[in-house]
Amino acid sequence: MFSFIIWDPNKTILSIGGFELRWYSMFWILGLAIAFFVVLKLYKHQKIEDSKFEPLFLYCFVGILLGARLGHCLLYEPGYFLSHPLEIFLPMHKMDDGSWKFTGYAGLASHGGTLGLMIALWIYVKVVKVPLWTVVDNIAIATPITACCIRLGNLMNSEIVGKTTESPIGFIFVQNGEDFARHPAQLYEAIAYFILFIISLYVYYKWHRQTAGTGFFCGLCLAYIFIFRFFIEFLKEVQEGWENDMVNAIGLNQGQMLSIPFIIIGVWMLIKPPGKKKKKEIA
Length: 283
Fold this sequence. Notes:
- InterPro entries: Lgt (IPR001640).
- Belongs to the Lgt family.
- It is a multi-pass membrane protein.
- It comes from Pseudoprevotella muciniphila.
- A 1,2-diacyl-sn-glycero-3-phospho-(1'-sn-glycerol) binds at residue 151.
- A hairpin with a 2-residue loop joins strand 2 (12-16) and strand 3.
- Helices cover 63% and strands 7% of the residues.
- The protein has helices at 23-45, 50-53, 56-75, 78-83, 86-89, 110-128, 132-156, 185-211, 216-232, 243-250, 254-271, 276-282, and strands spanning 5-7, 12-16, 19-22, 92-94, 100-102, 171-173.
- It has a domain at 145-272.
- The protein is mostly helical.
- Helix 3 (56-75) packs antiparallel against helix 6 and helix 9 (216-232) packs antiparallel against helix 11.
- The strands form 3 sheets. Strands 1-6 form a two-stranded parallel ribbon. A two-stranded antiparallel sheet has the order 2-3. Strands 4-5 form a two-stranded antiparallel ribbon.
């Protein structure tokens, strides 16, 4: 016999007055902070001046947050948020009695965040005048550690849970009112993204002359993350009830359908890194 893992963490790290610091927010900040220092080190290694690095993370933060938020609201719950547009942009929820409650941004979609990041980076290179594929690859190397931290935040929130399991590594998510075990899909993803982060750093420092600034790391990041995301969805519960109809009709959910274009782009970039020819011309 074995016993499942009872998962019942306190979502709040500390509370001062009406302010609460939650694990989810802390992991978001931690993931962005680690990515900040990783990209800073890459910029220095590539001898790109600090003045061009300084505005980068403002662009990234705004792009990821807006993209992820809009992605969730418009792709997963359009009916609710189109009738409550303020809640798209405010980290608050309007209660039945008309009062407002601070909830944080309870709903962020990785697909929207990826698209928002791409748009933000395109604007950044146009404004700051730095090589596009150098910037994109640097961000792609750091992205997996942020994704890892976000999934750990989801685990602390007992959200984006897996399907039921009899495996001894199953988690019983007590805060969801359950007494049966599920796959800790958030933990599976966090581990997979951490492994990608280590692989990306290793490849960069081993073969950066051949790969850096070609789009190779962007392709690797997109292909790895969204291929894994596609298959891990088979172990996860759908995020919205209406996705059950989609699964019954075509066998895939919304997250899997949205992953397919990113997989195609990522694989194509691995086969034909778009910045490789330009790098050879410069060399």
